[in-house]
Amino acid sequence: MQANGIDSSTGFLDRGSCLELVGRLASGAVASSQLLAALWIDLSRLKQVNESFGHLGGDMVITQIARRLREKSAGRGEWCRMGGDEFVCLIPNSDAEHARQLAQDLLQAIEAPLRFGELFLHPSASIGIAILEGDEDPFAFLERADRAMSTAKRQGGGRAVASGDEPMPGRLGILLAREELTIENKLHLALENGGLSLHYQPIIGFDGRVEAVEALMRCTIDDELIPPARFIPVAEKTGLIIRLGEWSLLAGARYARHLDDAGHRTKVAINVSRAQLTSPQFAQALHGALLCANVSPELIELELTESLFMDISETVQANLHAAKRAGVGLAIDDFGTGYSCLANLKDIPATKLKLDRAFVIVLPHDRRAFAVVKAMTQLGRELGMIVVAEGVEDQAQLDALREAGVDAIQGYIHAHPMPEEALLDWFQQRNAS
Ligand code: C2E
Ligand code: CA
Ligand code: CA
Fold this sequence. Notes:
Layout lengths: L1 E2 L2 E2 L7 H17 L4 E8 L2 H28 L4 E6 L2 E7 L3 H16 L2 E3 L2 E3 L3 E7 L6 H17 L5 E3 L8 H23 L2 E10 L4 E12 L2 E3 L1 H11 L2 H21 L6 E5 L1 H4 L4 H12 L6 E6 L8 H13 L2 E7 L6 H4 L6 E4 L1 H5 L5 H16 L3 E4 L5 H10 L3 E3 L9 H13 L1
Parallel strand pairs: 8-9, 11-13, 13-14, 14-15, 15-16, 16-17, 17-18
Antiparallel strand pairs: 1-2, 3-5, 3-8, 4-5, 6-7, 10-11, 10-18, 11-12
The structure holds ligand C2E and calcium ion (2 copies).
The site of ligand C2E has 22 residues, from strand 11, helix 6, helix 7 and strand 15.
């Protein structure tokens, strides 16, 4: 609540008054060649107090902390509440050393336990410090304090960071951030202008049948092919993977139908990322794709990376079972890369286990790796799953995998991933020979 530019819980100036004041103090400082410091303070865990004790509880905490701040600064500085749990103190005539010392004192005052009914709260805060530079724009000055506060928070809170002391992103960091932005832009373009496609790689059983084909996403912009190893991590970071994933679900399902119509009834395996499977909308997207493509669900298999099964949330469980009920198959991808909790494995309704390429690369010479592959294969089969090895490139690897009891092989030894039309030709040639 505010009246006359004053925040009623704290008696501090409100945000609007603060912005006015900083302009005046900055002009004054420049005119008299004096210093001006700003401390930007962000309290931690106030959200928790609000959630546990309601907003009245939160207000009580704010009021008490504000009192401590005022006492500690002993009349030096103008206090403002920027909203929520953020405060600014503007201190004329304060140099960096003084501001730093005051910030430490304020942190100490804030951190004293605070009695709340029967409980003791342990408040903490992050503080950013800025000193006005020449005739700097007053808002830019405040923003520097705010940014320094964010750095203090990122470093774990309970500390003060001065603007200018923040670690500068290195040249490499800037280049990487730029590259990510470029890829993100290209992905948006690809989604809107049809720059995405799926390539398909056959998975072939030791019995000679095509067990499935895996759909692998490709992104082409201005004739430049961006490999998945570059765009998938960016898509995951930015959340775009949900849209890309929905696109590949639909495109893969349509192609499964197309293959079936062309007389090559084969499962299409589609990669699903963690972000998709942890989303409550996943089941709906899957149903939508199956319906739109008008494909029978047993022709679709979802590949889920092993890391998903580290801890299975209720949403993931519900999505897995919804997929199962819809009639699509589930495969555990990249198995053996180190994330799986074996205890979880028994609860996952998957029908296929894909051994990661890392195990295959060292075959057949590494006998210990061979023992591991054999044991994993047995485990998969005991759990009623088909076991596939990925990334098989030569005959010696293939022979070792046959000996280990693996059911099917995916890799360059049989075929590289190929565009839709090429896969149809591949099927035709295979049937002809
Ligand atoms: P993944 O799911 O493990 O896919 C297998 C990767 O191994 C593919 O790489 C495939 O081209 C490659 N590969 C197959 N056989 C061989 C071989 O004999 N030797 C070697 N060296 N490599 C082989 P790709 O197409 O570059 O895809 C990389 C990854 O990108 C995939 O790994 C998958 O994690 C991800 N990805 C691809 N498409 C999608 C998608 O639609 N959605 C999601 N979420 N991820 C995707
Ligand atoms: Ca895969
Ligand atoms: Ca894989």
